């Protein structure tokens, strides 16, 4: 017998996908420039910075991956750029300051002499200039002590020796800074000041032997106008010609200071040129008696009771302290 009741409704079977699990979304592509930025940071910092900025721009437009790589490349790149820049700056400073100092020390400045330019260091121990050969003067005339090889002013118990070349720019700096206080110590009887005018910078006066002629002029002044010797020395430096020029003429040298006796004839005769050059040879070859050094290696060289002044040429306080330490003043 056929039943007229409807069959019960059957629940639908659960959905079974064709595959075991729903697919995962695909990972975004890593930006190529970001990779390049990170890698190049270890080799070329500037490339890392440039590619890092380009990578971040592309990532913002395309939603690619690699933002962290790009940032890391940028950071490392900037660190490298800053480090390289500092290294270059330090190298330039080193080349400009330390290397010349080392060369100065190697060249003989280790003996305690002030810093010198190359032109203020004697090149050879040979005689300089073309002074006429003549018998050297002897004895003492005015402030010139020919047998001892110096010009001397003052009668103090403490002795200050100054070795200089009339064309030496560092000697001019020392004279302009400390000449006044040395003159004052001479006047008050504290020191005996002995001047040693050298001639080795003849080689930078275009063949006119300026250092020899100026040294001879200073000696002419010492013999004829000893009371005006320090004034003449100051005038020599105040009117100092530049290196690699012909320097002052004899007429100009004779007219530097108004003095009772004219030194023109003394200059014209070439007197004391040979003596000035002989003093230079002795100073450069040595010995230097009763001194910390055996010979002069550059100018200016200043000795106080035989001790070498190694301080600043343009620091009057430091020089005064050195004089005081040497029982001067």
3D structure, described in words:
- With 329 residues, the protein is of the alpha+beta class.
- It has helices at residues 32-40, 45-62, 67-106, 169-187, 210-224, 229-238, 250-254, 264-268, 273-285, 316-325; strands at 140-141, 144-145, 150-153, 158-164, 191-197, 301-304, 307-308.
- A seven-stranded mixed sheet has the order 1-2-3-5-4-6-7, sandwiched between helices.
- A hairpin with a 4-residue loop joins strand 2 (144-145) and strand 3.
- Helix 1 runs parallel beside helix 3 (67-106).
- Residues 9-22 have a biased composition (Pro residues).
- Keywords: Membrane, Transmembrane, Transmembrane helix.
Task: Please state how the strands of the largest beta sheet are arranged side by side.
Answer: 1-2-3-5-4-6-7
Percent range for β-strand residues: 5-15%
- The overall pLDDT, averaged over residues, is 86
Count of helical regions: 10
Protein name: DUF4190 domain-containing protein
Domain DUF4190: 34-86
Biased composition (Pro residues): 9-22
Organism: Cryobacterium sinapicolor
A few lines on this structure:
This is DUF4190 domain-containing protein. The protein has 329 residues and is α+β, with helices and mostly antiparallel strands. It contains ten helices and seven strands.
Note the topology.
Blueprint: H1 32-40, H2 45-62, H3 67-106, E1 140-141, E2 144-145, E3 150-153, E4 158-164, H4 169-187, E5 191-197, H5 210-224, H6 229-238, H7 250-254, H8 264-268, H9 273-285, E6 301-304, E7 307-308, H10 316-325
């Amino acid at each position: 017998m056929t039943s007229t009741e409807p069959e019960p409704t059957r629940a639908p079977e659960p959905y079974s996908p064709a595959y075991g699990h729903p697919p995962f979304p695909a990972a975004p592509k890593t930006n190529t420039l970001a990779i390049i930025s990170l890698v190049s940071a270890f080799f070329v910092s500037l490339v890392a910075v440039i590619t890092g900025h380009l990578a971040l721009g592309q990532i913002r437009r395309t939603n690619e991956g690699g933002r962290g790589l790009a940032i890391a490349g940028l950071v490392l790149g900037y660190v490298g750029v800053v480090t390289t820049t500092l290294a270059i700056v330090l190298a330039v400073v080193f080349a400009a300051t330390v290397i010349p100092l080392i060369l100065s020390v190697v060249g003989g400045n280790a003996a305690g002499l002030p810093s010198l330019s190359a032109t203020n260091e004697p090149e050879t121990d040979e005689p300089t200039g073309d002074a006429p050969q003549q018998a050297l003067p002897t004895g003492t005339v005015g402030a010139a002590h020919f047998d001892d090889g110096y010009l001397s002013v003052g009668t103090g118990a403490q002795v200050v020796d100054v070795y200089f070349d009339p064309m030496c720019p560092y000697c001019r700096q020392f004279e302009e800074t400390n000449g006044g206080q040395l003159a004052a110590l001479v006047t008050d009887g504290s020191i005996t000041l002995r001047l040693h005018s050298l001639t080795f910078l003849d080689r930078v006066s275009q063949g006119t032997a300026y250092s020899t002629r100026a040294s001879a002029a200073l000696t002419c002044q010492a013999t004829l106008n000893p009371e005006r010797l320090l004034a003449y020395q100051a005038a020599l430096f105040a009117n100092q010609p530049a290196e690699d020029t012909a320097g002052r003429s004899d007429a100009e040298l004779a007219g530097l200071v108004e003095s009772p006796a004219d030194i023109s004839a003394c200059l014209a005769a070439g007197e004391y040129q040979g003596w000035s050059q002989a003093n230079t040879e002795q100073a450069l070859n040595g010995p230097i008696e009763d001194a910390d050094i055996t010979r002069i290696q550059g100018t200016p060289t200043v000795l106080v009771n035989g001790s070498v002044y190694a301080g600043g040429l343009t620091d009057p306080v430091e020089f005064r302290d050195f004089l005081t330490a040497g029982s001067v003043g």
